[in-house]
Amino acid sequence: MGKPYKSFTSTLTGVDVMQTQVIEGNELKLMGIAWLIIAFLFSGMNPTIFLLMLIPVGVVFVGKWLIQKYVAKLLGYNTQFVLYREGIIMSVLVTILSFGHFVLLTIGNLMVLGKTGWGITNQVRDEAMIALAGIGYALALGFLGLFLGASVCGNFWFMLSKVGFFIAFWSALPVFGMEGKKVFEWNKIVWAVAMLASSIGMFSLYY
Fold first, then answer.
1. Which H or E run contains 156?
2. Of 81, 73, 141, which is closest to residue 108 (Cα–Cα)?
3. Residue 1 resides in a domain
4. What is the pLDDT of residue 118?
5. Is 108 helix (H, G, I), strand (E, B) or coil?
6. Would residue 25 count as lying in a domain?
7. End-to-end CA distance of the chain
8. What is the C-alpha separation between 199 and 91, in angstroms, rounded?
């Protein structure tokens, strides 16, 4: 898988902001691994539910990745999806120890590597836009699933809503390794709106 355990250096500061280990390699393979892991995390360790979760996880997670890569390309940036070794271990352990009742999504992220071509750019803003594209996409699917949940195939729409809101919520957190940190550093008001919308979505799943 390429250079398996490489220390991540922030694209914004140019320094190693945390000794977080990332796994690099073929992006499609890493996405496939992440897809399976996330489906497992949402399955409650039930093999049947795991198979069912592959579709909504694919729609939300893979779709979010494609949307963000497209926006990054429009803004002139190269990107690379990476996995967080410690994040994967922590997420899987939390799922096992909670018997599948709690989902922790800290397994990977789309890294912005740098701008292609020429021109003046605001990388802080641009990275925030890329992050918001993914958060907004996941939120949109979450609310879509919520509104269509009472229709035919209600279980599918509920699963889609759950995955969408969970991914949006974890992505919006303003901590290292999460996309919310990029939005928070660019515009705290925009971040607050995204975080509030994600929190409302999460709340709606249980009440």
1. helix 154-172
2. 81
3. no
4. 56
5. strand
6. yes
7. 43
8. 20
Structure tokens belonging to residue 182: 């990029």
- Going by C-alpha positions, the residue among 126, 129, 125, 158 that lies closest to residue 141 is 158
114 φ, ψ (degrees, to nearest 5): 155, 165
Count of structural domains, the chain: 1
Q: Which of helix, strand or coil describes residue 202?
A: helix
* Whether pTM exceeds 0.85: no
pLDDT < 50 stretches in the chain: 1-20
Q: Rounded CA gap, 61 and 41, in Å?
A: 13
| Residue 150 backbone phi and psi in degrees, to 5 | -85, -5
81 and 30 in contact (C-beta within 8 Å)? yes
186 within some domain: yes
Cβ neighbours for 58, distance < 8 A, ≥ 6 positions apart: 35
Q: Which two three-digit tokens encode residue 34? A: 């992440």
Cα 189 to the chain's mean position, in Å?
21
